[in-house]
Design a protein that fits this description.
Length: 712
């Protein structure tokens, strides 16, 4: 790389960088004397910040119901004019109509319009706003991309960033900035010596008991995979699409389903604080990785025993079958529900709206520091994990999923890349919405954790199957909490709702549920205790599940590999999970899918909202066939279809195999930098103008279509 021209723009951002840097230091130096004080202000992604932990003020059961529009908000809630069809929420349409701020609907007139004040209308509205900000905020040029990079992360982009950017553009990536997950996963490694990172990565696989594979890249080739499996083979295939840009490296990969690292919160705070302090943006850096770094695995030695190089212990410990929260809570902030005395009801307020507990913050619904106390006995991983090999030490191990308290480095799950008919979406076998059945389907095996006669009722899959078993509901006289429309309303008025917690779900479950196991698996000493509890439903291929309008996806032993296909389908995906994946920040609950609490205490409220329940007029209610004569809720099929369509279109743009390649490429550039001894002095220090021409031509070429469709 030749010398780079110092232009005004560059001086400007450098100055900005210096000022920002000064502020950080200033803050650190004067904000508090002890590191702990300083550290307690560094947010860990996916965790509540200390202020958020205070229970929200003034929320009580009485003022929940009238979820009118936010008084300061410009956008009215989704209106449902009784005479005219719903306004089309499709952004493309909005853009075509030339509206600068799409989705603003005409002010309803009292005579013709009323509002549906169901909390879901409000949640969908909010999600649309967030998603629009996300979509419109993305950088359009390389200049903007590097500028945003520096302002967000306080560093130059890594070496090879120019090539990555071109790669990403050619693959039509929708949001070239959204790689925070990578940055968050790697941030604490700035507090670890690069040589230690390399040594761990090189040798972690050597003890077969610890469940680690490794991919070795030398001279732009995957030259060997040790202790690999189809997973590492698939990862190697992804890497091959951009391997010419990578330095030599060893990539240690988790072979187990369960995540590995739990660094205690206090240690993590120290590391994050060190990372802050290490942020530098020297005026000129070298745009290439350092060659021949010591500490990588010596590929010339055939026999591992002959390799005398240094090894570092990962301090693995085995902990299967024990309460996961006992170790996991160490990684939580002291004031979080997992480490304080906060009641479950108080913790719930952080992520559930208060009527029937619909999820209003999907991130927190899977934050173990928040939900851990509520679900520690209700999920297989938390209650009866089959294989936990964990460490409290920060070592570089790549994993397909993790829980938010883990420090594994996420990469896109191989199942999403591999072409496997069991998990692949096939459009030819999908039906149009109107031809789908009005029910919710789930099929699977009894995985999730080790099951015994007295613990299976705590497993997440088993709970789901029982919850939606009409016979079981009837036998146990089960009751669910839902929302019902208020009665005696003047038709022209707004539709308002009230909670009803005595909903008898048996008939509804029979009519609108198709949820069951196909096979028992993973029990001790054997699965015969299920004989009197479950009957096995016929196996249904992935694509024939799409005959149902509603698909629910829950965890197995770890994350569920079906999720991309569910989103791509014309059905609507419901999702309950404790796991985090690479794609989380690009998927918006209530815009692309329906979030479900891991306790499923909201599931009947959700299903009755979409499917509808009962008759509008009271006369029918006295007929006596209906188990719940008090309940009436109009169907919201339109809303369901809208969500399904939005999820499908978005998945087709942002969860493609190309997106996986782009994510991995970016991840391995960042990884290549943190394990480089010169990591502070390598990277891209230009202002982005070198790709002006590229941006201009790409903008006119392939990307035109994309932006045209998206409407921005
Ligand atoms: C209906 O709801 C809208 C939006 O919340 C509100 O502005 C309007 O006053 C309500 N109308 C009636 C009759 O309550
Ligand atoms: C690699 O894994 C296999 C089992 O998958 C094991 O038998 C073997 O010992 C492992 N090799 C090393 C070096 O860990
Ligand atoms: C490692 O040490 C052993 C014993 O000292 C020696 O025989 C062997 O050659 C060494 N291996 C290498 C690669 O130097
Ligand atoms: C938690 O509750 C116990 C017993 O009620 C009490 O002694 C302790 O101080 C409480 N801790 C916090 C952090 O509130
Ligand atoms: C399963 O385990 C139970 C309890 O230990 C035992 O009575 C039964 O014979 C076993 N069934 C089979 C098929 O092995
Ligand atoms: C539903 O529950 C009943 C009674 O508890 C049981 O006999 C039946 O096998 C269950 N059905 C399924 C699909 O598991
Ligand atoms: C949820 O987490 C993602 C990262 O996975 C982040 O981008 C997003 O801003 C978070 N949303 C909220 C509401 O905190
Ligand atoms: C997915 O995207 C491709 C390329 O933009 C387009 O041709 C195709 O019609 C899209 N499919 C769906 C279902 O939106």
């Amino acid at each position: 790389m030749g010398p780079i021209e110092l232009n005004k723009r560059r001086i400007f951002f450098l100055l900005g960088g210096i000022i920002a840097f000064y502020i950080v230091f200033h803050g650190l130096a004067f904000g508090g004397d002890s590191l702990k004080d300083v550290a307690s202000h560094i947010p860990i992604p996916g965790h509540l910040t200390p202020t958020e932990h205070k229970p929200p003020i003034g929320q009580d059961e009485d003022d929940i119901w009238d979820l009118g529009p936010d008084p300061v908000s410009v956008v009215p809630p989704q209106s449902h004019p009784s005479a005219t069809p719903d306004p089309d929420p499709d952004p493309a349409k909005a853009a075509q109509s030339g509206s600068a701020v799409p989705h603003i609907q005409p002010t309803p007139t009292a005579a013709t319009t009323h509002f549906d004040l169901h909390p879901i209308a409000h949640l969908m509205e909010e999600a649309d706003k967030q998603w629009r900000i996300y979509e419109t905020g993305a950088s359009a040029t390389f200049r903007q991309t590097v500028e945003k990079y520096r302002s967000r992360y306080g560093r130059h982009p890594p070496p090879g960033f120019t090539d990555w950017y071109k790669f990403a553009r050619k693959k039509n990536v929708v949001n070239v900035d959204d790689f925070d997950q990578i940055m968050d996963d790697l941030r604490p490694f700035w507090a670890v010596k690069p040589s230690d990172i390399r040594v761990h990565a090189a040798h972690m696989w050597e003890n077969a008991n610890f469940g680690v594979a490794v991919i070795h890249i030398r001279n732009h080739k995957v030259i060997r995979i040790d202790n690999g499996s189809w997973r590492s083979d698939t990862m190697a295939k992804v890497i091959e699409t951009f391997i010419e840009f990578l330095p030599d490296m060893d990539i240690a990969m988790n072979r187990l389903d369960q995540p590995r690292l739990i660094v205690p919160w206090e240690d993590m705070q120290q590391m994050l604080s060190q990372e802050y302090k290490s942020r530098v943006m020297p005026p000129e850096v070298v745009d290439s990785f350092t060659q021949k770094l010591p500490g990588l695995l010596d590929m010339d030695i055939e026999d591992m025993a002959m390799d005398n190089s240094t090894r570092l212990s990962e301090d693995w410990f085995f902990r299967p079958g024990k309460q996961y929260m006992e170790v996991a809570s160490k990684a939580c902030p002291p004031e979080s529900p997992a480490r304080s005395n906060m009641s479950i009801a108080q913790a719930d307020q952080h992520y559930k709206e208060s009527s029937t507990g619909l999820i209003n913050n999907f991130n927190l619904s899977s934050d173990l520091c928040t939900v851990g106390p509520a679900i520690q006995d209700l999920h297989g991983l938390l209650y009866s994990a089959s294989s936990i090999i964990a460490s409290h030490k920060l070592v570089p191990i790549f994993g397909e999923c993790k829980v938010n308290i883990n420090n594994d480095i996420l990469f896109p799950a191989n199942m999403y890349y591999l072409h496997d008919v069991r998990y692949d979406y096939n459009a030819e076998e999908d039906l149009d919405w109107r031809d789908k059945e009005d029910n919710i389907i789930w099929r699977g095996v009894t995985s999730g954790g080790v099951q015994t006669d007295d613990n299976w009722q705590r497993m997440h899959r088993q709970r789901l199957v029982q919850l939606f078993n009409g016979t079981h509901a009837k036998e146990t006289n089960a009751k669910a909490k839902i929302l019902t429309q208020k009665r005696f309303e003047v038709p022209q008025q707004n539709t308002t709702y009230e909670p009803f917690d005595k909903f008898k779900p048996d008939q509804f479950a029979e009519q609108h549920g198709d949820i069951g196991f196909v096979e028992a698996w993973g029990c001790v000493p054997n699965c015969s205790f299920y004989d009197s509890v479950f009957s096995w439903k016929p196996q249904v291929s992935l694509t024939s599940q799409f005959k149902s309008k509603y698909l629910i996806d829950v965890d197995g032993h770890s994350f569920s590999g079906r999720w991309h296909a569910f989103l791509q389908s014309k059905s609507l995906g419901f999702k309950a999970t404790i796991f985090r994946e690479w794609h989380d920040s690009r998927l918006f609950a209530w815009r692309h899918f329906v979030p479900v609490d891991n306790r499923y205490d909201d599931l009947y409220a959700l299903m009755t909202y979409f499917v509808g329940y009962g008759k509008p007029n009271m006369e029918h209610a006295t007929e006596g066939h209906d188990l719940n004569p008090q309940v009436y809720i109009a169907p919201h099929a339109k809303e369901a279809q809208t969500l399904a369509k939005q999820g499908r279109e978005w998945a087709n743009k942002s969860l493609r195999r190309e997106d996986i390649e782009v994510y991995m490429f970016r991840l391995l550039l960042e990884y290549g930098r943190i394990m480089d001894d010169n990591r502070d002095h390598i990277g891209y220090s230009g202002d982005g103008s070198d790709l002006d021409k590229f941006d201009a031509s790409e903008g006119k070429g392939e990307r035109k279509g994309l932006w045209g469709v998206a409407g921005w």
